[in-house]
Design goal:
GO terms for molecular function: alpha-L-arabinofuranosidase activity; xylan 1,4-beta-xylosidase activity. With 205 residues, the protein is mostly helical. It contains six helices and four strands. The chain folds into two domains: 66 residues, no CATH class; 81 residues, no CATH class. Strand 3 and strand 4 form a beta hairpin. It starts with a helix and ends in a 13-residue tail after the last strand. The chain binds 2-acetamido-2-deoxy-beta-D-glucopyranose (NAG).
Length: 205
């Protein structure tokens, strides 16, 4: 019957409709997510050597550094690193605060959707007072107290915890110590470290 034939024809087209729907929703999703550096969806960077994940990291780093101009390198040295569109790299704000857990006071951290928040650990001075190095490695944060031996061991555990064990030649992050003794006066209430007499405070440390 003509009616049944029509149904059969429609049924045979069903897989194509499903495919069309799936690819439409895939395209929608992939468009919703902005391109990231070395994104395989980006034809511009697909052939670049530093984007090839099967190459050793040193080779990729050397290739990337070789492509960057001096101006571009300098603009990457600050926390609001500028984009390098010709190499498919977006701008990147990496400044954030983790005094006792990742907080959202820094411009580089935005909670929401899949990451609604982060654990807020107790004040660090009490964690330091536990003298438990494996605990420090797990939850280390800033300011463990005045004891130089403890502060040194704390810093080593903290950095190890942040960076990971380097498995696969990759660090989780590249940690960098700051706020050394007698240095913590970046710019506070009109005082900065270039314009005060350090001799007056030597007794404090
Ligand atoms: C030290 O901290 C670890 C967690 O990293 C914990 O499992 C262990 O029980 C702690 N040790 C002591 C003596 O409290």
């Amino acid at each position: 019957m003509p009616h049944n034939n029509q149904n059969a024809n429609l049924l045979s087209l069903l897989p194509f409709f499903l495919l069309l729907l799936l690819s439409a929703s895939y395209l929608q999703q992939s468009h919703a997510r902005p391109l990231f550096a070395c994104d395989p969806r980006n034809g511009l960077t697909r052939g670049l050597r530093f984007c090839r994940t099967n190459l050793p990291i040193q080779v990729r780093v050397r290739d990337l550094l070789g492509r960057l101009t001096l101006q571009e390198k300098i603009r990457l040295l600050v926390n609001n690193a500028a984009a390098v569109p010709r190499l498919g790299m977006g701008g990147y704000e990496w400044w954030s605060e983790a005094l006792h857990g990742v907080s959202n006071v820094g411009p580089g951290t935005k909670f929401g959707r899949s990451f609604p928040g982060a654990t807020s650990f107790p004040q660090v001075i009490t964690t330091a007072a536990s003298f438990n190095a494996s605990l420090w490695e797990e939850i280390g944060r800033e300011t463990p107290g005045e004891d130089p031996v403890l502060a040194g061991k704390y810093a080593a555990s903290y950095v190890r915890g942040l960076q990971g064990d380097g498995a696969g030649n990759r660090l989780k992050v590249a940690a960098c110590c700051k706020h050394y003794t007698a240095y913590d006066l970046d710019n506070w209430n009109g005082v900065d470290r270039y314009h005060f007499n350090a001799r007056k405070i030597t007794g404090w440390h």
